[in-house]
Amino acid sequence: MSCATRIAKPNLRLNLRDVGHKHHTNFEKPGVGGGNLSPNLQPATPPTFPNSKEPLTATKIADKYLLLNRLDGSLLRRCIHIESQQEYVCKVVPNERYRDVLRGHFRVDSHPHINPIEEVLVGKSSTYIVFQRCYGDLHSYVRNKRNLSERDALPLFKQVASAVAACHSAGIVLRDLKLRKFVFNDPQKTQLKLETLDDAVVLDEDDDWLNDKHGCPAYVSPEILSPTSNYSGRAADCWSLGVMLYTMLVGRYPFHDTEPSGLFHKIRRGCYTVPDHLSSRAKCLIRSLLRMDPSERLTAEEVLDHPWFRNTKFIDELPGTSDQMVPDREICLEDDSPFV
Question: Residue 31: what pLDDT?
């Protein structure tokens, strides 16, 4: 497949009214990108561009790119610009869906912590959306280090919250928000970006009420598990932000069980333990995001104004990662009686 038409982003015009919303019931299976039900993170994702000895199949796109293998744990595929030998990643979608996919990206494409689209190529049956390459994902980074110190986690989580706030402001609800969604933009692993807007819902109005059951078990909010049909998508995203911050600092998920039913039972009850070694500001931010009542949670914009970010002098007095103890099991005694 070497024949494709290039679409320049500034000149692309989409009929957004023809793009509808799709609702799915799709809880991700345990062990995929944060769905692991155990307290600890799943095994790390291999490097994005490993030196693999296995033979690779390649497809030429518009005589410009070579489309290679799919990345582990991702829907994206490796691709190489033939002339420059520059490495990129590519999302392949059916032609009938590319407007839906691009709609959200073009609303936030200039944000520094959202992966920008490099090029869009429309073929006979598929559209190829080319993004900048990445240097590993946040989930693997945290898993390899077991947990992050507050001084290491703070700048990374601020970038995460900034990307989520930009999406919410642009009318985009991410739904499946998790550590794996964020990848590093540099080999030094200091700059994060939201990899893609897969599973996101683009709103036509400010109303963000959703009625689907979607996301990773470890990150899902209690209202999504409620029998009530509707919930605020933005508030559910902010619950997931709380799970992300907790996991970055503690090295395990706040809610866990060996079975989905047990995990969901604990999420509905909202029982979790915050380790004593965390600063009072970090504890406050976690608790402000993991509130059972969605209306009482901080918004993504309010997260960026939290005292944990506003005054960072106290960070120098905090212990480093090696000084922090990562508990192997829950500290508190949990009530296993049925949820009513």
Answer: 46
State whether the Cα torsion 113-126-48-44 is positive or negative. Answer: positive
Rounded distance, CA 195 to CA 66, Å? 20
- How many Cβ atoms are within 10 Å of 126's Cβ, its own excluded? 17
Of 70-79, 147-156, 162-171, the least confident? 70-79
Residue 176: active-site member: yes
Reported as half-sphere exposure (CB side, CA atoms, 13 A), residue 264 has a value of 15
Q: How far apart are CA 23 and CA 214, in angstroms?
A: 8
Structure-block tokens of residue 188: 């030094």
CA dist., res. 104 & res. 293, Å (int): 28
Residue of 259, 294, 257, 252 lying closest to 273 (CA atoms): 252
pLDDT tens profile 163-209: 999 999 999 999 999 999 999 999 999 999 999 998 999 998 889 99
Residue 116 DSSP SS3: coil
Look-up: residue for tokens 């993004």?
131
Helical residues (DSSP H) of the chain, grouped into ranges: 98-108, 138-145, 150-169, 233-250, 260-269, 280-289, 300-304, 307-310
CB atoms within 10 A of CB 151: 16
**Structure letter (DSSP) for residue 104:** H
- Max CA pair span of the chain: 63
State the virtual CA torsion across 217, 219, 221, 224 in degrees, nearest 10.
-40
**Helices then strands, each counted (H, E), the chain:** 8, 15
pLDDT surpassing 90 at residue 236: yes
- Taking CA atoms, 240 is separated from 19, 76, 336, 338, in Å, by 27, 23, 24, 24
Query: Residue 339 has what pLDDT?
Result: 24
Q: Pick from 91, 87, 114, 126: which is nearest to 168 by CA? A: 114
pLDDT of residue 14: 37
The DSSP bridge pattern shows strands 213-215 and 25-27 to be parallel
Choosing from 137, 152, 176, 237, which is the catalytic residue? Answer: 176
Q: For residue 318, count other CB atoms closer than 10 A to its CB.
A: 17
Phi-psi region of 62 (alpha: psi -120 to 50; beta: other; left: phi over 0): left
